[in-house]
Amino acid sequence: MKRILSLLLLILPFYIFGQLKFETIRIKDALIKAKKENKGVLIDVTSGRIDDANISKVLSEKALSDKLLQNFIPIRIDMLNVDNQIDYAEYITNLSYPVMVFLNANGSILGNGYWDEMAVGRQQFSQVLDKAIQENLVKKTNTRSIKFMNMDYNEALKLSKQTGKPIFIDSYFIGCGPCKRMEEDVFTLDRVADFYNNNFICLKLDRANDPYKLIEKFKVFGFPGLLYINSDGSLNTLHQGYRDADQFISLGQKALDSKGEAATAGLSETPSNMVTGTSSSSTAGSTATVAMSGSTSSVPATASTASLGSSSSSAAATSGSSDGSAVQFEKLSLSDAVQKAKAMNKSIYVDMSATWCQPCKMMKKDVFPDPAVVEYLNKHFISIYFECDIDSALSNAYRDKYITTAFPTHLLIDKNGELIHKFVGYMKVSSFLEELNKGVLATTGLGSFHTRYKNGERSPAFMNEYITMLANANEGERASGLASEYLATLSLNELADRKTFFLINEFVRDLDSDLTKKIFANKQLFEKNAGQSAFDQYVGKVWLIKGLSYVKEDAGVKKLDKDGYDQFLKRLSESGIAQIEYVKTTSMMENLYLTADWNSYVNFAIDYMQKEKGNASPMLTWNWGARLQSECPDKNLKTKYLQALELNYDLIKKSGSDQAIVWAESMKVLMNDLKK
What we know:
GO terms for molecular function: protein-disulfide reductase activity. One of its GO terms (biological process) is cell redox homeostasis. InterPro entries: Thioredoxin-like_fold, Thioredoxin-like_sf, Thioredoxin_domain. Residues 126-261, 306-442 form the Thioredoxin domain. This protein is of the alpha+beta class. It has four domains: 14-141, Glutaredoxin (3-Layer(aba) Sandwich); 153-276, 3-Layer(aba) Sandwich (Glutaredoxin); 314-444, 3-Layer(aba) Sandwich (Glutaredoxin), CATH 3.40.30; 475-675, no CATH class. It is 52% helix and 14% strand. A five-stranded mixed sheet has the order 13-15-14-16-17. A four-stranded mixed sheet has the order 4-3-5-6, sandwiched between helices. Helix 12 packs across helix 30 and helix 28 packs antiparallel against helix 29. The chain is globular and about 80 Å long. The model is unreliable at 1-19 and 260-321 (pLDDT under 50).
């Protein structure tokens, strides 16, 4: 089961399962090592939580572990670390995590899997491993690649008419992770190269250099955009997003089969495998938002990626069959649902969704059609589905009674209308079934935990599970109150236990509380048990939350308590913590933004860039500039910031930083916007 989001758990130099060690090094360093040892790399991608129970189960056979070590170097990256987010965007990009991924020594993906799926037999690690080994051998022996012609588009159309071959165009932009994966992992395979070189005139199109405005003409919104064009210049098909070799060849064959017939492929086919193209800054901005929210939930989002795909009702898409091949979703009022549940002696499952919610669409695409999910829901539940932004007349009664503030929220309700269990978010099939099972087993759902708590149960195991359930149900305020109550009863050694650290990290955030002071006073003990890196990040987060507490609203106007904040900065400078500069910079810029002190905002940002030079973070400078562009009315301040940003970004590029490549397209868009 997926635990509380954004937790920082145990971080150690090595993680050992039997004879297998996962090194905590960056992907690029692992690839250098892999080339020297003539191996590939296995990456365990985590987000705070390490799935040690399932990993131990999957790797319990020594022969399998030995085979893995003979062919791959195992490493682990935590996506709460900004450097790892940069590496992920470069080498992996479109896979949802936590996930385990095999790369060859050149950084090409050989395969991937999920520990929890393998632990229950839905995937076979031995098969994933064997396929990765075989794929590595194939890539080593491949010598050909697609020949993209350096040819004007009109010339390509003439050649198409002469040869009878349609045109294939790979549209991309610099910094697009899925585009790079297609370039390195698919276009370089012999069978792909032979098929496309024999059947198409192949061109590349950089979004930033599109003289014929093909991207606008053919409405390419996601990248890579795979365009198949007939000899007369009409669009044959358009597909958007990463495709593996077999899928890519299949797309080409379909284009050949339908040559001369105009058709377009829907945008919603692979929304998770594309980068939206209306503004590349959306993509980089969302990465920055993740990094900032990983530091503290109090830092607001500054950009988001636009949702793609159909907004039509998932209920309509999954309830059209009455033969048991799809989930039998309905839209019923709460009273009607309860009445039907009593008549059929079933519980009620409610999926609270929204038309714009991307995780909701992923549930619709990946989870609800699964045969095991279909069978389980139809057997045990009356299934209700709402898109709350358009179904408010029916859904509001559910939202009000069961406190639904996030999407998707999954409600399990008994036949009397009482809550059995509640959980939030997208999850894989196995995790979803595990949560649904709590609606069938009466003692394992959130409702039963409410009852057990009311009856006085307070054991450590129970409290940990109860608090986690509340957090996963998006009942953060209640979870926080219980966590504070529970943690206050523990001894120092119990507090320092690594199993308790995730509760501390998630809920103990008041810098001046007695509990926080106790934790900080015993720094060495907590570093020993939780890991120095995890503890340092926790300390930085607590200080940052305090630094953001000095903006108060008075008569609708936000004002900074300057005396209080100045005292905080003095206290921070004397604290000796590892993240003094990060806390100072982030809190200062956030406070200046909240109070709309744009002059000080720009001056402080420029001071930061001049101080850090080529080591400045483009993630920060882009986010600061994006806020300035969208909300500051002063054109002169925008120009002043732009001049400093251009100089600083040149220094970052000259330093050879990977971030210069990752942020190149986003910076270009921002700089152009600041000039307007």
